């Protein structure tokens, strides 16, 4: 990865897209390790995490992760997900955070030297181009090692730097007590790329975050959560 230690940097994480990419590669992300990794590459100004939530559910599988991130260095951007029934009578949930992510990135562009987008969604190509016209470097984290690739070709071409998520696995993988690291487990089957309006997974995150000790780290990104 090409980073300069004196450059100001901001992370923009499309939660559902990154989750699907990591799952397709057969590992779960340890978000503390991820934050520490990029904080060591430059002057990390802000780390945004975007996700839609089903507010009317008594329990959401993503809630433990969202609460943990909110206390441990991330700026959470959320909004209610939309639930509907399709023509086959199946329950579907939609959650698109593209606009929120784009607005935040353009608001931050005058305060940073480098943006890092965690998403393979081709709809972000124009956003990355706009950021580059402001003189800001743009890296994209996704994967071409899944079948099919998680990153759109046009987004990969536009980025100043493409970072293969699979190459970061050893540094950001969440190792569970009841199973070894990914290299010791069979690879998970590949899933289709996540599009802008794809369904949110009912099993979005690993519930192990619920078992962690209560967060004791003061949030380093104090912007109030929206949503």
Helix and strand composition category? alpha/beta
- Number of continuous helical runs: 7
Q: How many runs of DSSP E, i.e. beta strands?
A: 8
Give the helix level as a range of percent: 25-40%
Instruction: Please provide the ordered H/E string of secondary-structure elements.
Output: EHHEHEEEHEHEHEH
- Rounded Rg: 17 Å
| Through-space gap between termini | 33 Å
Strand content: 15-25%
Poorly predicted spans: 184-224
What sort of overall outline do the alpha carbons produce when their principal axes are compared?
globular
What is the average per-residue confidence, as pLDDT, rounded to a whole number?
Answer: 81
Assembly state: single chain
Strand order, largest beta sheet: 3-2-1-6-7-8
Task: Characterize the largest beta sheet: strand count, sense, and whether it forms a barrel.
Answer: 6 strands, parallel
Description:
This protein is α/β, with parallel strands linked by helices and 227 residues long. Helix content is 28%, strand content 21%. It is built from seven helices and eight strands, in the order E-H-H-E-H-E-E-E-H-E-H-E-H-E-H. The protein has a six-stranded parallel beta sheet, with helices on both faces. Helix 3 links the parallel strand 2 and strand 3. The two termini are 33 Å apart. Residues 184-224 have low confidence and may be disordered.
Question: Which helices and strands, and how do they pair?
Answer:
Elements: E1 8-14, H1 15-25, H2 31-39, E2 43-53, H3 63-71, E3 75-80, E4 82-85, E5 91-94, H4 98-108, E6 114-118, H5 125-133, E7 137-142, H6 153-158, E8 161-164, H7 165-172
Parallel strand pairs: 1-2, 1-6, 2-3, 6-7, 7-8
Antiparallel strand pairs: 4-5
